[in-house]
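Re-run with default settings, no changes from the original entry. Doing this only to confirm the output is reproducible before filing.
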Amino acid sequence: MTDPDLTFAGAAQLLGRITAQLGTQLSHVRLDGTRRPMSTPTLIAVAHGSRDPRALPAVHDLLDRVRELRPGLDVRLGHIELNAPLLPDTLAGLAPGGHAVLVPLLFGRGHHVTHDLPAAAAAATALRTRVAAPLGPHPLLVEALYERLVEAGWTGAHGASRNTAVVLASAGSRAPESAADIRRTAALLAERLGVPVVAAYASAATPTVPEAVRALAARGRHRVAVASLFTAPGLFATRSAAQAPWIAAAPLAGHPALARLVLHRYDHALGTTRTPTPGRELAAA
């Protein structure tokens, strides 16, 4: 025989849950019956950090462009190391119950993207957090790389030369997924330029930039440019540029295409992807 007290307790719990759900739903409705706008999640751009004094202004320039493209969006910066604010401090500065999307200003699925950022997000227990994909590979990234090479002196005529090639220099990672992402970006850039593009690394992986230059020279490609797959100036970017036998492109921060890509990754993480450029996507979102 059913205990009436237990039946009453169960009904009370059910009523409590229904009341809570109705309260949550009604909190999104104005007195006139129209729906209140949902709060927009904060975009937290996560940079690696650098001791180079030029790095922080370059990243701020990129985020200023992001804000110009999406007025009203709360855009904040957090660093993995070396610079303030560090990512945990940025997360701690958000109101409890807030919602944030972490967008890594990194170009492949290395340890920072697959481990450090998810760990930082999980530690922010008072927040709802999501981690977006890294910036590469993507056609918008290729467009930024291409235009930085043009600024350094690349012309259409170089794409028709059998003597010309490009080394795509990046920081490097031991993660095979990261290397695959960088190689895919190199392949997309090769399609854009019409010349061979070899991925090379400043640390943790091979080939190095000098090794890639020598390999291209052995194939008869003696005019080699270095494309910079770095967000901002720093030790690795400077060292890679110094090893260029011909022209070297500047880092990407501040480029309009990179700012659009940051927003694209943010939107995709929220499931509200907007088309960043006309035409078909050349790489996975």
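Confidence is low (pLDDT under 50) at residues 12-31, 275-285. The first strand starts at residue 42 and ends at 47.
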